[in-house]
Amino acid sequence: MLSRSVPTVALFLAVLLFPALAMAQGLKKVAIGVDWFINPNHGPLVVALERGYFKEAGLDVSIVTPEKTTDNVTMVLDGRVAIGMSDQPRTQIEIANGSTLSVVGTLIPVPLNAVLTIEGGPIKTVEDIRGKRVGFADSEKTERDLLMIALAAQGINGQDITLVDVEFDMVSALLDGKVDALTDVYRNFEPIRLQLAGATPKVFDVEAGTMPIYSELVYIANNTLIEPDVVDKFLVAVERGVKAIVDDPDAGWETFIKYDPKLDTELNRLSWEATVPLYSTRPATVDEAAFARFATFLVANQLVARMPALNTYIYGLQP
């Protein structure tokens, strides 16, 4: 069952058909947080900004990048941004631990996290990770907890591997032989970077056969500060951004790099091509059933004691 926080038809028409009206009423300044440095995962947001879709919806949007990987949630909770981004597992764990987060939409509705190694190296199968060094860069441990669960399904426990904090120099650490594999990597980014460095990537999907499918990136807000009008207008504009990209990925790319010419790299271009098919074309939709399945998984694997009811943290879901 899908839950959709649908802006009203009147709002949709006002934004799409009468942008001048929205402009005439004045723009509301809104800060939007992302989960990492700007990259192709954020394409719909950047395209909506660069093409003026937010302004046509009455929003003066600025994008805020986190200083640390955990700041994407902190910025939402302390009110620095009205809407942010996070992965579904961490979001649900934060909520189970008492956080006031709400899930207001979906950016990428499938997992991206993976275990990455080099083809031809010592790791041929997941079982070969036993006794190896696995690099990570994420300062919060949700992804590593999921990795441990996936490995446990193969009979491998935490003592069977050595976790190495490689900070943000992940691919270099793998190429230099400091680690045998990486986790906390996105399968639409780091494998491409490895390939550009002349190595052949070998990717293991962490969730395969071990856990329910989850959304890699969802839009989040603080439910004590949430402004429904802002959320609804934001989602309408982002949906226009997604449609523009899907309709013409090349033109979308040109708009994306206009935001910052430093984004115009071969790595980002190839990642863009890999990412475009992954965007949710209905960003105001939250997959209620997927959240319910993952909540059950979190409790069963003792990552949380209990999960609140879905209607307490999925925006627009009725009691």
Please sum up the structure shown:
This protein is an alpha/beta fold and 319 residues long.
SSE diagram, text form:
Layout: E1 2-4, H1 9-17, H2 19-24, E2 28-33, H3 43-50, H4 53-56, E3 59-64, H5 71-77, E4 84-86, H6 88-96, E5 101-108, E6 113-118, E7 133-136, H7 142-152, E8 162-165, H8 170-175, E9 181-186, H9 190-196, E10 201-205, E11 217-222, H10 228-247, H11 249-259, H12 266-275, E12 285-287, H13 288-300
Parallel strand pairs: 2-3, 7-8, 7-9
Antiparallel strand pairs: 1-12, 4-11, 5-11, 6-9, 6-10
Helix pairs in contact: 3-10, 3-11, 6-13, 10-11
Task: Provide an overview of this structure.
Helices cover 38% and strands 19% of the residues. It is of the alpha/beta class. The strands form four sheets. The protein has a five-stranded mixed sheet with strand order 8-7-9-6-10, with helices on both faces. The chain has a three-stranded antiparallel sheet with strand order 4-11-5, covered by helices on one side. Strands 1-12 form a two-stranded antiparallel ribbon. Helix 3 (43-50) crosses helix 11 and helix 10 (228-247) crosses helix 11. The radius of gyration is 20 Å and the shape is globular. It starts with a strand and ends in a 19-residue tail after the last helix.
